[in-house]
Amino acid sequence: MTLVERHLEKVRLHLDEENQEQWAVLCGATEQALAQLVKRYPQCPPELQQLLSKVDGTYWKKYGGQMVNLLLLASDVGEDFGYYLLSCEQMQEEQRFGDSIDDIYGEWLGQADVIDVDSRIDTSVAMSERLCFAHCLNNGGTSRLYIDFHPATGGTCGQVVRFLHDPDSYIVLADSFEAYIAGVLESNYAFVSEY
Predict the structure, then answer these.
(1) Which CATH number does the domain 3-186 belong to among 3.40.1580.10, 2.10.25.10, 3.30.450.20, 3.40.50.300?
(2) Residue 121 CB contacts under 8 Å (≥ 6 apart), including other chains
(3) pLDDT of residue 112
């Protein structure tokens, strides 16, 4: 089994009965939807493409007549803090956020009580240049996950960045999406049926 397949199996095993019903209707993105995403983000990691080919999002995504909202990914914030996987379409909708971290915080940058940014993240890059692939359990307002293709010196192209609100921070969670999923596999999957 691949990393992605192992991850999905662990999620399935941790679902409660109510969420099993949602799980049963999930299906992967169409080839066209994946192609559009890769056209916009040519460096989209193969592991994320594989995940989307099996599950095209779990963030208030309609499959047939059923609305799905399943937590599919983990965070460093806490064992029970999870994320919804965005669909290919939702990931592309995130492009509307064109401001950079510099634009958003301006004079507040450098004030650790307001905003803390990992030195491996280039604050001048527009957020739309990063692939936002997950919103947290409270609909993304508190935390989001990105794949960063334009790192600062010392960073790695494809690193996974976590935004967290109040106090705001942007940190590198993993050097790649593959490494991120490998880290999730080491967790206890407490986030799965939390909400």
Answers:
(1) 3.40.1580.10
(2) 101, 148, 151, 152, 155, 161, 170, 172
(3) 82
